[in-house]
Design a protein that fits this description.
The protein is α+β, with helices and mostly antiparallel strands and 146 residues long. The protein contains 6 helices and 3 strands; from the N terminus they run αβββααααα. A hairpin with a 6-residue loop joins strand 1 and strand 2. The longest helix is centred in the C-terminal third of the chain and has 24 residues. The protein starts with a helix and ends with a helix. It binds FE2/S2 (inorganic) cluster (FES).
């Protein structure tokens, strides 16, 4: 089995058995977005406690890559420092998925959840932390995701 086959199997497993699927009551961060090419949707809820991700869940409907990517992203950030999550780059998400050299359409599938995450962080920085400097940087990053 090639490494591409292994990654395909892993993605299908996350798609069929999504980890951290669901919603959080009264989340600190609640954000949703859709892929402009297909209309598929993704929503993410996060609770922050002591500057760490205390809980994260997602819901959505879409292709295997978008849903698996969201599920893997929740595992990647669960329990992590908020600063670490703020600094995550799209390359980290693609590495985590094991997918490189995706075409422009598939990149949007793979990064939809990442865009939702970063947009949610932006709103949290503005509304809860009143950190406009970090928020401005985050806004710029969000606009460059795809
Ligand atoms: Fe819609 Fe992938 S085809 S998110």
């Amino acid at each position: 089995m090639s490494s591409a086959d292994i990654y395909r199997e892993i993605i299908l497993d996350y798609y069929r058995n999504p980890r951290n699927y669901g919603k959080i009551e009264n989340p600190d961060i609640s954000e949703r977005d859709s892929n402009p090419l297909c209309g598929d949707e993704l929503e993410m809820h996060i609770n922050i406690k002591d500057d760490k991700v205390a809980d994260v869940k997602f819901t959505g409907k879409g292709c295997a890559i978008s849903q698996a990517s969201a599920s893997m992203l929740t595992e990647l950030i669960m329990g992590k420092d908020f600063e670490y999550v703020k600094k995550l780059a799209k390359e980290d998400i693609l590495d985590n998925l094991g997918l490189q050299n995706l075409g422009p359409a598939r990149i949007k599938c793979a990064l939809l959840s990442f865009k939702v995450l970063k947009t949610g962080i932006y709103t949290y920085l503005v509304d809860n932390l009143k950190d406009t400097e970090s928020a401005d940087k985050m806004k710029e990053e969000v606009s460059g995701i795809y």
